């Protein structure tokens, strides 16, 4: 029985120690509850403010770009594809006509020279036949040339 008394005494001491520990834990818990603990969130606030400012700038830039795009779209003219093809066809036609006109104008001097040579040859042939048919006319013409040459 002495052992049993010893074990009971030991258990009683342990229970008393446990109760004391619980009392200390309760006091510490009450102290922690009453302790005004406020975490420092200033760095987080600064980061969030910077992020918010950056987002505002980005949104403003996007709105400006959107306004520019809308302004350009409002000023643009939408043409159907057939109208564009027609305009290109007209442009090509005008360029072809213009090129042909320039080509014809560059050939005018050659045509004039050819017409002059043809006319001169025709006239000389006509006068030659006239003088062959009318020898008196030829004599009168030669006299006239001599008189003109003397003057």
Notable characteristics:
single chain; 151 residues; mainly alpha; 90% helix; rod-shaped
Could you characterize the architecture of this molecule?
The chain crosses the membrane at residues 82-103. Residues 1-35 form a coiled coil. Keywords: Coiled coil, Membrane, Transmembrane, Transmembrane helix. The chain is mainly α and 151 residues long. The chain has a domain at 115-151. It is 90% helix and 0% strand. The protein is built from 4 helices and no strands. The radius of gyration is 61 Å and the shape is rod-shaped. The model has no long low-confidence stretch (mean pLDDT 89).
Helices, strands, pairings?
Layout: H1 2-34, H2 42-75, H3 81-133, H4 135-150
Helix pairs in contact: 3-4
Parts with pLDDT < 50 across at least 5 consecutive residues: none
- Envelope shape: rod-shaped
Main sheet record = none
What is the N-to-C order of secondary-structure elements (H for helix, E for strand)? Answer: HHHH
**Whole-number radius of gyration?**
61 Å
* Approximate strand percentage: under 5%
The number of helices is 4
Structural class: mainly alpha
Average pLDDT level: 89
- State the helicity in percent bands: over 70%
Number of strands: 0
The termini sit apart by: 184 Å
Provide a brief overview of the structure:
The chain crosses the membrane at residues 82-103. This protein is 90% helix and 0% strand.
């Amino acid at each position: 029985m002495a052992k049993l008394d010893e074990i009971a005494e030991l258990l009683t001491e342990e229970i008393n120690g446990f109760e004391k520990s619980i009392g200390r834990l309760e006091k510490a818990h009450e102290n922690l509850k009453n302790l005004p603990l406020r975490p420092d969130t200033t760095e987080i606030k600064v980061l969030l403010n910077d992020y918010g400012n950056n987002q505002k700038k980005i949104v403003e830039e996007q709105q400006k770009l959107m306004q520019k795009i809308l302004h350009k779209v409002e000023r643009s003219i939408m043409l159907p594809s057939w109208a564009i093809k027609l305009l290109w066809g007209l442009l090509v036609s005008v360029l072809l006509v213009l090129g042909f006109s320039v080509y014809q104008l560059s050939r005018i001097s050659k045509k004039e020279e050819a017409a002059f040579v043809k006319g001169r040859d025709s006239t000389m042939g006509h006068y030659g036949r006239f003088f062959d048919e009318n020898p008196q006319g030829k004599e009168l013409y030669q006299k006239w040339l001599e008189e003109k040459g003397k003057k």
